[in-house]
Structure formats: structure tokens, C-alpha cells
What we know:
Elements: H1 2-23, E1 26-28, E2 33-34, E3 41-45, H2 52-60, E4 65-66, E5 73-78, E6 81-90, E7 96-102, E8 109-116, E9 121-127, E10 143-149, E11 154-162, E12 166-170, E13 172-176, H3 177-212, H4 215-234, H5 237-241, H6 249-272, H7 283-296, H8 299-303, H9 309-339, H10 345-366, H11 379-455, H12 466-493, H13 498-517, E14 521-528, H14 534-555, E15 559-566, E16 570-577, H15 591-602, E17 606-612, E18 615-623
Parallel strand pairs: 1-6, 14-15
Antiparallel strand pairs: 2-13, 3-4, 3-6, 5-12, 6-11, 7-10, 7-13, 8-9, 8-11, 15-16, 16-18, 17-18
Helix pairs in contact: 3-4, 3-11, 4-6, 4-11, 6-7, 6-9, 7-9, 9-10, 10-11, 11-12, 13-14, 14-15
Amino acid sequence: MNKLFLLFLFFITLIQVCFAQQGNPILIDTAKKFNISEHGYFYEDKNLNLSIDSIVKYKQARKLIPLIPGKVFSKGYTQSYYWIAFDIENTLNESVHLMFKEQSSSINQLQLFKVDQLGKIYPLGLTGDHFPFKQRPYRNRSFIYPMVLSPHEKATFYLWADKRGQNMYMPISIGRDVDIIQAEIPQHTLFGFYTGIFVFAVIFNLLLYASVKDNIHLYYAIYIFCTLIFILEEEGLAFQWFYPNLPGLQDYMRLIMASLSCGLLIQVMQLFVNQNSTNSRLYRFTNYYKRFCWAMSIIPVFMLFKSFILLEKTVFYINNFLALLTVIIIIICVVERIRAGYKLGWYYFIATVMLLFGVFNYVFNTLGLTNFNLLKPNGLVVGLTAEIIFLSFALTQRYNFLKKEKEILLEEKSKHQVDLADGIFNAQEDERTRLARDLHDDLGGTLSIIKLNITAFQHKVLKLTENDRLFYDQTISMIEKACADLREISHNLMPKNFEQLGLIETLNEHFRTLNHSGKIAFEFVFQVEHPIESGMEITIYRIVNELVNNIIRHSFASKATIQILSFDERISIVAEDNGIGFNPDMDKKGLGTQNILSRVNYLNGKIQVDSNQNGTTTVIDIPLK
């Protein structure tokens, strides 16, 4: 019973095929468009030797295969010629102007023939990517043939297509000339819109690269440019706009841009998620894979000069495989970085998932596994556009993330530098205190004992000769000077009773000593409204002491004024003298000046120096908060 049923289905199918080839014409009426897939049939010329006469005989012999109704003619990668045939009958009492449209935009060679009822053959033009653009019957990105039918005319049309080395994917249709042309307008508008987005993204990233000098923006701009050229190649617009007199270039440019885009996308991913050998086990593999993609982009360059079918077939399948593999590798690498705690990787993950659906849709259509587009104009264009928009947004988020991260690092560095400076200055003060104590207690005591022992021999001095007595007096003077110098050094290292007296009283005592024994008259002016923190007090003392030492050693002044004024938010130190002045730019390398600058910087203060032949004024502002 089952065998009889299958036999019955076979005969029904055979009858349908015979009926289709005997005559199921497209009836031309007042409609705007007409469906070919429900009326046409095709034949695969694997030997590449059929002529129009042969295919006409094949049709008469009913050797052609019906097209699948409602489906785009798609056979995947091919090395054959294909013939498509369909009958037309004008049912109107007037002539009709139609257009036949093949919309794949990428065909090596294409020719349409018209065979009238008497069997006479009329070639309607040979065109394709292997011919200059101006040779097309109608100058459009798609392949369009004008067709004119007389009243009640019947004819058969045969389309010969050479897409060797590519996927046999040919959306074909017939419609009235006005409607076919008008249908191209929204398509051009749509691609103009997408092209505008891509161009804007390229310019935006180039400007960012010029501004922030981050290589990711340069690589991403090149990637967007390559994908834009690839999309325009797929739609036939690059051939129409950029190189209409270079036939054949389109096929190879598409392969070059596809391979370059895969490698660049891996490079952008590595930079975006900060993938390196220390945080990713896949880093070495992605590096090799990226270089392989770039190497693959070189092969089509050589194919421009010499190529053969086997090489074209290999490159075709490798490029489609790379498109799928690249997106999968990126998703795996990004997930690895997300799991490692790199939260910014979620942006790249979402952008890549958007691209994934478009790439799968495009590759499956290219390989002939599917023959539909998820979105208009096609899944690849929409997927790339969504990825570019979202990833451009993600790059701005990455910039903000890196900016915050840099601020945190700078804050930590600043804190570390403050802690380091605190440690250095505290160590210096501790060492100064120890040295002052050791000098005073040990060396000072030793000098005092030496002086005491020597002065014990005063009663014997009278017995000495005049020269020996002079030597004795010089020795006593030298010991007294050494003791005075020791007291001064010890006082400079750590003022006596500084912790008990504080900054102001210590300086008051210091200036009284200077005015008593020095040649410069110092005036000390102070106004301190709030207590100064002890660590800041000793640093301010060091600053004032260096200012005073510079005045004493270099100014040749007779008068000087030192002011310390404390306010709610700052402390102001002003040192003025009536000396000969100096060049602040020339004397910045002096040890005293360097000591002042280092301590002012440690307190986050600012220093201004005004010096001329009438004297020098130094103003230092130190913030309290």
C-alpha cells in the first residue's frame, strides 16, 4: 500500500514538472509586480558548455527543474553555470514596459535572452561584475533588464548566470519599470542611512584617537571602515561609486575586507577587555588567530593577478568559517575576562551577541543553508550597525571607567607619596633630634671637659714663653668657637625646648639671638589665631630658618622682616629684606632653595618670589585643609 502511494506521488510530481515546462506562464495584467518562483524553472550546467540553443531544447525536452515557490533561488557555493527560464504572456490590449531585476549585486557574468513564439532568439545584453559598470543595460547597483511586450505577446525568457567561486543566491523579480525603479529609492535611502552611521563612527573614533591617543580608537575606526566597504561590496554600491571601470575587483575586495575585519575585531577586543598574557589563557591563541586573519587578507591580492577555482573555493569557505569563528572566539574571551572580574566586558559581550545573529544569518545564506533575512536590508548590516552603535557607547563607558580608575590610582599614588614624604620628613626630624642630642650630650660634653682640663693649667701659663702663651690663647679660643658652633648646629638640628615653647616662642628667641650678635636687624611679626599642628610647626620652622639663612648669607641686607600670619584656611609666611636681590630662575638649584621648595610642596603650598636690586620678597601660602 505504501509503495503504491509513493508511486502515485511520483507520477503527480512528474505531471507537475511536465505541466510547468509545457506552459505555466506569468500572466501580465495590471499588477505592479509578478512572481517568478511560481512559474520558472532552472538547470545547472556543470560542464559549462550549454548554449542558448541547447537550453531551449532542454526546456522543450522537459529537462528543467521547477523553482521552489515563494523561495529565493539559492544553491550555496557553486562552480557551475545556471540557467533560469520562465514564460510570459501579456494579457492586456496594450504594450507593457517591464523590468527584470536580479538583486544579488554580485555576479561574474549575466545574460538575458528573449525567445518569441516563432523561436527567434533576442540577446538582451551581457553584463556582470567582470564588465565595466557602464555596460549594464540599466545603470543600477542591481542587474536590471528593461523588457517590452506587445499586446497579447507570448515569450520565453532565459537567464544565464555565472557565479562560479561564489554562493549561488539570486533574488529575481519582474515588475513594471516605474515600480521597480521606485522600489530602489528606499533601498538607496536605507543604505545611505547605514553608511552615514558607519562614517560618523569612523570620524568619531579618529577624533577620539587624536584626542586621547588610545590605539583602540584607531583600530576600531579601521575596522568600521573595512566593514563599511564590505557591506557596500555586498550590495554592489562600492563598484558603482568607487571603481566602476575596474571590473572583477569587487569579488576580491570583499574577501580582503572580510579577513581584515576579523583580525581587527580581535585586536579591538583585546584592547577593550585588556586581555594580556597574565590575565588570559587564550591570549597567545587570539594573537596567532589575529595574525592568521590578516595573512588571509593578502591571498586575494595575489588572486587579482592569477587565480583558479580551487583557490577561490578554499578562500570562500575559510572566510565564511572565520566570520563565525571570530565572533565565537570573542564571546569566549570576553566571558573569561568577565569571570575574572572585569565588569566592563559586559558591554562588549552584549555588542558581540548583537553581531552574532547577523553573522550567522549572513553565513548560512551564503552557504545556501538558508535563504531568508532576519531583518531588512539584511541581518549582517543590521547586526554590524547594532554592534557599532553599542560598542561606540561602550568605548565612552570604557573611557569613563579608565578615567575613574586613573583617578583612584592617582589618589592612591598621591596618598602613597604623602605617606612616603611623611616618613622621610619624620625620619629626618628623628635623625635631627638624635644628632642634636648626641652632639649636645656627647661631643658638647667632651669639648667642655677638654676646655676645663686646659684651663686647669692657667697658673702655669705665666711661666710659658710669649709664643707658647699666644698658642695657648688661640687653642682656648678655638675650643670656645667649637662649642659655640656646636651649640648653633645643635640648635639648627632641633631647637632647644621646641616642643615646650612652640613655633612662635622658638622663633622669637632665635631672632633675639640674631639681633644681639648679627649685622642684620630682624623684625619678627606674627598673628596666629588658631593652634598649628605640631608636625606642620616644625616644617614651618625649617622653612623660616632656610629663608633667614639665605638672607644672612647672600642678601647683604641691613634690615629684614619675617611675618607668620595664620588664618582659618591658610598660613602665610612673608620674608622681606633690603638687600641686593637675586635671579630666582638662576638660583633654583641652590640647596637652601631646594630645601624650601621641597617643604612647601610637602605642605601643598605655593611660593612666589619677587627680587630686584632693592631687595627680595618671598611669599609662601600653606593651606590648612
